[in-house]
Amino acid sequence: MATPKPALWGATLAAVLLASTAQAATLTVNPGPDAQERLQTALLDAKPGDVVSLAAGRFDFTDGLSLDVDNVTVTGAGQGKTVLSFAGQKGAGEGLLITSDGVTVRDLTLQDSKGDGIKSKGADRISFVSLTVQWTGGPKETNGAYGVYPVSSTNVLIDKVTVRGASDAGIYVGQSKNIIVRNSLAEFNVAGIEIENSTDADVFDNVATHNTGGILVFDLPGLPVMGGHSTRIFRNKVVDNDTPNFAPKGNIVASVPVGVGIMLMANRDVHVFDNDISGNQTSAVMLVSFSRSFDDKSYNPLPRDIVVRDNRLGRNGWLPGLPGGKMLAAATGGSLPPILWDGVTTYPGYDGPAPRLYLKDGPVLNLNLPKAGEVEAAKPTVTATLGSPGLPERAAVVLPVGQDKPAS
After folding, report:
1. Measured between alpha carbons, how far is 159 from 275 in angstroms, rounded to an integer?
2. Which residues are 232's β-sheet partners?
3. pTM exceeds 0.85
4. What is the C-alpha separation between 18 and 15, in angstroms, rounded?
5. What is the mean pLDDT of the chain?
6. 3-state secondary structure of 21
7. How far are the Cα atoms of 159, 178, 182, 392, 408 from residue 404, in angstroms, in the given order?
8. Is the bond preceding residue 363 a cis peptide, omega within 30 degrees?
């Protein structure tokens, strides 16, 4: 057979694209007594390119929902207009679980899931836009752990999201890569925003307020992905974080003292700049090492390659919720300096250099702990700043073309 001419190839490709576009559909689901079955059926039957549209109104569910189809948009009529209530959920799972790529969830409110609110697992190009996730009974240990929860995902966009009442973290990104969290509000959670065991994250233009801790960047041992690094935290308002810790006992965030603005633990290459940080009773910024035991010899429990510069700091540290915190505050003039570092520079089996830090926004309280957690052996010192410039600036996170469009 003769090879088609280029013009014919172009016509054939155009026809295929038109046919693909024509096949895309909008599947509309309205509230009603059988809405759960109709919505889950729509999520199962959706094809790539389809939109699953939830009308305005309240949807009452007794079970979680799931989506495993690529390139689907799930949209409501707007935050507070389309409300998905899981108050009657019988199981303990997520409200909505997504395990497919190219998915956008937007313009709706999700309430009172027994487990996490909205979770993506193993997804690429996952976008959460203009969402509210909340537990309407206020902060409680029995609330779900995470509000918006992408894990083991790549190219993550969280934009114009509000989360209230999560018993672990409101906005939590774990074991993921290439992340933007922006224009969002996290309040009345244990951790407002948390980046954990993840790489290349930009967290900016958010408000973290009335949480136990505002913004956390952690790296923990014993997880499938470790070695979190390269996070920028900038242009955020981290203010008045004053909610008592209500995390279940044993959770890592259960140890976060009330009133921490930004907390960095065992992570690498984190830059904190151009933020407004005030009204946090324990500390504006804390740098701490991981203090629990671990077996993985590749794990580094120290915060390192950290830059804290050019932030606007208000009143912080007047009532630190740390062991010996009142004595420390009294010894430093009635409140802790804005930056607190545990001062741990080594750990068993480590013989490398001390961590590189540039903490410009001092004074800096260095606890000089001999090892993580030994607060009673601290010999605190206060310095105007700590370290010197020289750590390279991080490049901005760039998402795939088409994903990083401003939320309307």
Report:
1. 18
2. 202, 271
3. yes
4. 5
5. 92
6. helix
7. 9, 12, 11, 25, 12
8. yes
